[in-house]
Specification:
Layout: E1 5-6, H1 8-15, H2 19-27, E2 34-36, E3 39-43, H3 44-53, E4 78-81, E5 86-89, H4 90-94, H5 100-103, E6 105-108, H6 113-123, E7 128-131, H7 135-143, E8 149-152, E9 155-156, E10 161-162, H8 164-170, E11 176-191, E12 211-214, H9 219-231, E13 244-245, H10 248-256, E14 262-266, E15 276-291, H11 298-307, H12 310-319, E16 330-332
Helix pairs in contact: 1-2
């Protein structure tokens, strides 16, 4: 039994490659892996054997990013130019041409599964940009033609549904297509062992607890705010409500370090944050939205074919943490 089992993110850091490249190596059978539940693990000895066998092969190097902050922590609408690895302001990346369809493909969203789409488009020769803004603002950018596609996980309390009602309200008169990528579990981050016995949304009414919030416009923040309204809990009365983190990882890390008693976010993607326990509360659906006028462009055709394939489901299964029961579903509005 191997004693040093690593997550895909651990492997990516050690090899200085993108996380989706690790999944590609596993899928192609070049890097052996094991399944622990639904999570993939790789042993250090298998990494060593892979490196030894590929000393004369291609070198996979993680692009150097000079901004010490992650794109979603910089407070600007930022894109990451995949071909160079340099994060840039959206206006700088587009330059004189504000039309993303003629400049490059821009995908807005933060979830790791979008890396799979970026990788697929990059392999076909497309220049791909990533915008790391919350999904509410991502749809706003799609409406104004500033991005090509935007991910969304926006819960509507009135209908108890995800994304579709927001799409109708935020994109009035703009015909769009919507691909369902998968489901993710939303819930609360608490300290390991849950010493404060935090169980659900009602615990935000406990005056002794301090929270770390997500930024306005994120799907997680919109979910929380609607839950608080349903329960009659005033956000202004919650300690830490005005403190914002701009990613699931940052929120979980704040709780792990003792900066807050609880935070909100999704379960997947925080495996490397030690000292955290997750309280599952609600399944959410993660969709990709694009302008219907672009449906015959090479980028949308490539992505649509990939999302509808068994290969995409297999790739998500390798990443772990997704509900695949609705993956590939397609709607038009």
């Amino acid at each position: 039994m191997e004693s040093d089992l690593l997550t895909a993110e651990d492997v990516a850091q050690r090899l200085r490659i993108k996380k989706y490249t690790v999944y590609e190596l596993i899928k192609r059978g070049e890097l052996p892996s094991s399944k622990v539940g639904k999570q993939v693990r790789v042993s250090q000895s298998d990494i060593d054997r892979y490196l030894a066998a590929n000393k004369t092969g291609p070198q996979y190097v993680e692009p150097q990013v000079h901004d010490q902050k992650s794109p979603w922590e910089s407070g600007r609408e930022v894109v990451d130019l995949i071909s160079s690895g340099q994060p840039k302001a959206l206006e700088e990346a587009l330059g004189e041409n504000p039309d993303p369809a003629s400049a490059s493909v821009i995908i807005s969203g933060q979830d790791m599964c979008l890396d799979l789409l970026v990788n697929r488009l990059s392999m076909s020769g497309n220049t791909v940009l990533r915008s790391y803004v919350g999904c509410y603002n991502g749809l706003y950018s799609l409406y104004h033609g500033r991005v090509s596609m935007s991910a969304a996980h926006l819960w509507d309390a009135e209908t108890d549904t995800y994304n579709y009602s927001f799409i109708r309200r935020l994109l009035p008169g703009l015909p769009v297509g919507v691909f369902r990528l998968g489901g993710r579990m939303q819930g609360l981050y608490v300290k390991k062992g849950n010493p404060l016995h935090i169980q659900g949304w009602k615990d935000f009414s406990r005056p002794e607890l301090t929270m770390i919030n997500r930024e306005r416009g994120s799907g997680t923040r919109i979910l929380l705010d609607q839950k608080l309204v349903q329960l009659g809990i005033a956000g202004a009365g919650i300690r830490g409500y005005t403190r914002e983190s701009s990613s699931h990882m940052a929120s979980a890390s704040t709780v792990a370090k003792g900066g807050a008693d609880l935070g909100c976010g999704c379960e997947r993607g925080i495996e490397r944050v030690s000292g955290i326990e997750f309280v599952p509360l609600q399944m959410e659906w993660y969709d990709l939205v694009f302008r219907l006028a672009d449906r015959n462009t090479p980028a949308v055709r490539i992505i649509g074919s990939y999302i509808s394939s068994d290969e995409f489901k297999q790739d998500l299964e390798i990443m772990g943490g997704y509900d695949l029961s609705q993956t590939g579903r397609y709607e038009e509005f």
